[in-house]
Write a structure and sequence with these properties.
With 95 residues, the protein is of the alpha+beta class. Helix content is 22%, strand content 24%. The longest helix is centred in the last third of the chain and has 11 residues, at 72-82. It starts with a strand and ends in a 13-residue tail after the last helix.
């Protein structure tokens, strides 16, 4: 799993690749961004195969942190290539 963390005065963002879930993920915290126990205001990519491409998640993240690195898409793609998606285990039930 990869995880890249970014923050500004108004938001904290974690974005990355989760190989066991075969999905990119995004978590966004707003409000008291220093509260480590707070639940994210936005959480995408929590289910198997939910976000197979990083671009939609990067677009949401940029709404909160506009100056994310221009190389983020490339880095997330490299993360996925370094840890390919794992096949879904039989018997798992979708929510």
């Amino acid at each position: 799993m990869s995880r890249h963390d970014y923050r500004n005065d108004a938001a904290r963002v974690s974005i990355g690749w989760d190989a066991p879930l075969a999905t990119f993920f995004l978590q966004v915290w707003t409000g008291d961004i220093d509260d480590e126990d707070a639940a994210p205001a936005i959480w995408l990519g929590g289910f198997y195969g939910e976000a197979p491409q990083p671009d939609p998640l990067i677009a949401v993240a940029r709404r909160h942190i506009p100056d994310l690195p221009a190389t983020l898409h490339r880095q997330l793609t490299v993360d996925r290539l370094g840890a390919p998606a794992r096949p879904r285990r039989p018997g798992l039930i979708d929510p």
